Each structure stands twice: as structure tokens, then as C-alpha cells.
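Researcher: Next entry: MBOAT family protein (Oleiharenicola lentus).
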Amino acid sequence: MIFNSLTFVVFFAAVLAAYWAIPSWGARKNILLGASYLFYAAWNPPFVLLLVLSTLIDHVAGARMAAATRPAARKAWLAFSLVANLGMLGYFKYGTFVLENFQALLALAGITYVPPQMNIVLPVGISFYTFQTLSYSLDIYRGQMAPVRSFRDFALYVTFFPQLVAGPIVRAVDFLPQMVNAPRPQAGRMAWGLFLMTLGLFQKAVLADTLLSGAADSVFGFRGPLAGLDAWTGVLAFSGQIFFDFAGYSTCAIGASLCLGFSLGDNFRFPYAAVGFSDFWRRWHLSLSTFLRDYLYIPLGGNRSGAARMVINLVIVMLLGGLWHGAAWTFVVWGLIHGLMLVLERGLRHLFKDAAWTQTLGVQLLLGLATYVVVCIAWVFFRAGNFGTALGLLAAMTGNLPIAGEAILSTRQIAQVALVTVGLLGAHWLLRHTTLEAVVARSPRWVLSGVWSLMLFTLILNQGNGNAFIYFQF
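Model: Predicted structure:
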């Protein structure tokens, strides 16, 4: 069940009506929990058992960790949580990848090995809910929160359907306190939630799927040499597609949560207006970047142990961040590019020490444009299914093809991608120092009504477009 389907609209309307019709807070939480399991079972019912198992492991580990009086016992329960969660994630997400690479290594040594056909199915959302349950155990171990006694409340935290399969990654310390007291229905909050859901669906169905995905799919799926203009158009199209797709999902999740009385943090803050890669990761997929910062980069030592260790830590974090997205070396290279850019940026900042001339508008625009170009180059490895496709595209983009590339996109497609890209970059730069809430607060009602109506109208025109969200595969 995906947000951009009629099935979800009916499901959400039924859940919303039942949820607010019942006065008992406990009964309303039961409805949400049942709806969340139903939402997940609609994809693959047997994997609900895996979700329950993951929930049970961390609920027990958290309680035992808090009750333990000896440090060794606390470490043992934390280790149990880490091994169990990362073990399940590793088996389902990286089992085939590990076997394939093991087979390749043996082949290099002259040994023929045929691995068994495991046909592992990746449970949707496992990367997201695994990180959520891990944050619960880690925060209890670090003394930052107490374990929740109610298994029902903890299960609802893990399975909360608006953000279950593609985030944002919500931490227990932020979500569980919201389940103590029943939220009251508020017309303004409901309207804002519905507006965000409309905006998210507009980003996904109209901008990502209708206007950009065609060019991106054509370019990344083409097997021959491409003309440079087409290669750049396809990459720009994907840069917009993945933003509108993922930000659209996050916006829908935040909006649906608000309709149910829950608040989730922002996951995007106009990332294509970033000046530098540090700024980019303060704007892109915030729930993942802050998770990696707090639970990996800082425990590794962060920047407290000298420049060399900081470089190693940055690269490790970004390599693992790339691998989190998918079991393929192309994702690792994507993470490596981001890691190296973060290291380069630190070096340049140390060299120029934020000199006044670097803060002028012209320099900031140039640095922002350079950041966007490198981000797009990194997207090539993220989207390409293999290194051959990625390197072929980069050769076409830099004019290094031995033969003339083929033009496969129509003039309309190129113009369409150009217009959306210019609009996207312009909007991000205009809004880079503000928030969507602030913009809406100072906009006249007639403008908001017109924008909302226009988004609804275009969604109706694009009904039936039910492509899955890209981040479902992660």
C-alpha cells in the first residue's frame, strides 16, 4: 500500500475517522497499532512476524538493560540488541551481496565456488525500523531515556504506519513521550497535515513521476553511448526525481502524522541550496544524517582525536551511509564521494578560515552551484545499476566518448527537465534561510487556496500513476 494509491486514501480516511471517533486514548492507540500492522501486511504478511520479533527484542533488551546493576550486564544486553538487529538487517539486505563477493574473491584465487540460490526477499522498510529500534536501545544504554513499560506503546512507535517503510527515522526519545497524553483534535493542525499530504503527493506523482522519471529512466536504461546533453539531462532529471520522490514521501508522512496528532521532525531543508557538503547533509535526509552523526561519527571519536582520525571517521561514516542505501559497490562509491568531499571541505575551511570574501553572494552562489554539480555526479553512481553505466554516463557528460553519442531524448523532454530543474534550484535558494511553515504563515489565504487547488487539480489529472517510492527499496 503506497501513499499515491486510492487504496491508501480509503485506508487513511477509515483510520482517521475511527481514531478520532473514539474517546479512549488506549483504544485509539490500539486502532493505530492494528492499522499499522495491516498497512505493513498489505505488502507481505509473513514479514509482519519479523517486525514483531524486532520489536520484542528491543523491548526486552531495553528493560533488562535498565534493570541491570552491573556494567557488564548492560553491555551484554546492548550487544544482544545490536547483534540481533544488525544480524537480521545483514541477512536480508546484504546476504546475497556478501555471497557474490565471496564467490568473486575465490574466483580471483582460482577457486570455483557456486553459492546456493538463497532468493532472499528484502523486507520493505527494514533499514528504517531497524535504526529506530536500535536508537531506543542505544539511548537507554547511554542513560538518555528510560525504557517504556507498555509493549503496545513501544510496538506502535516501531510500526507507526505513516513513516514505517521509508522514514523519517524517528527516535524513541522524540516519539514515545507523545503517547503519554491523548492529543486533542485541532482544526488548524488537521488542515496543515492535509496540506502537507497534498504537497507530498504533488511532489511525488506530478513532479517526480510525471515530469522527471521518463527522462531519467531513458538515460540510465540506455545501453549505448549518449550525447552529452542527453546524459546531463538524465542526471539532472534524476537529481530532481529523487528529491521530489523522497521529500514527497517524508512530507506525506509528516502530514499524516499531524492529522493523527503526532509531530515528526523535518527530513529536508531545501538541500539543493547547500553551500558545501556539510551544509548539504544538514539539509538532506536529516533523520539519517543525524543518526549517523550521533550513533557512529561521535562514538568513533568525531573530530576530537586529530585531523587524521577525523578524516578516517568521516570516510567510514559516509561509506557505511552509502552501503545503508543498498547492497552494491555503486552505493559505496556514492558514499565515498560524499566522504571525500566532506574531507576536502574541512581542508579548504582550515586553509581560508572563512575569509570575508568567501561570504559574498557571488562566491556563495558559485560554491552552491559547484556543490550541486558534484552532488549530481555522485547521483550517477547512486542511480546506475553498474559501474559500466555510470562510467559511460560520466564520459558522455565530460565529452570523453570515443564516438559520437546518441541523442535519445526529445526536445520536449529536455525543456521539461530544464524548466523543473531551474524552478527547483530557484525555489531552494529563495527559501534556504526560512521554512515552509514561515512562508505559509505570511502568505495570503487566497494564494494558499489557489496553490492547494492547483495541486489537487494536477493530482486528479495524474490519477492512476502509482509508481512505488524510490526509498522503499532501501
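Model: Note for the record: The CA atoms of residues 286 and 435 lie 15 Å apart.
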